[in-house]
């Protein structure tokens, strides 16, 4: 059996593109080592210009506090947790540089998709469909719950894959490396619990 016939994901990706993939900076996939070096340089720039580490999950927590303040402003104002993020006297505002960084991530992804002519759309991955069926609702619901759990854990750890995984690990912070290793171990255990060892037969390269 050929790889094309075995890989619905690869076939879907091929049928979802328009024309050949541009080369160089407009390629659909960049060299991972080049991307890693670029992220390292971005971290240098962030430290030099902002005086803070590169991160994203704090913005999600701030957004929750902003929404909560519209419903129960007294609760948010008296919360020790949100008090660390909302303090105008200390120069801590909701709409800081990190907030716009998170917004720019969506804009950058859209621009990259347009320039690379990528039109890949996948609602239910083959691996998930093999294990749990073709229901989009179940897939979206599980992705949402998983995101909530991941974000809750990131805030408990004081950082996410950006704050700990990138900014902290490149500074050789022990807490960040502990987070990094724990995240990978938890990911492997969760994948095995959900899909077992037979799941690898349903994950093929594009």
Order of helices and strands: HHHHHHHHHHH
What overall geometry do the principal axes of the alpha carbons give? Answer: globular
End-to-end CA span: 15 Å
Count of DSSP helices? 11
Beta strand %: under 5%
Please give the largest β-sheet: none
Our Rg estimate from Cα atoms comes to 20 Å
Total beta strands: 0
Question: Could you list some keywords that capture this structure?
Answer:
206 residues, mainly alpha, disordered N terminus
Task: Give a brief outline of the structure.
With 206 residues, the protein is mainly α. 66% of the residues lie in helices and 0% in strands.
How does this model look, in words?
This protein is an all-alpha fold and 206 residues long. 66% of the residues lie in helices and 0% in strands. The chain has eleven helices and no strands. It has helices at residues 3-6, 8-15, 32-50, 57-71, 73-78, 80-83, 97-116, 126-132, 136-157, 163-170, 174-195. Helix 10 (163-170) packs antiparallel against helix 11 (174-195). The two termini are 15 Å apart. Residues 1-15 have low confidence and may be disordered.
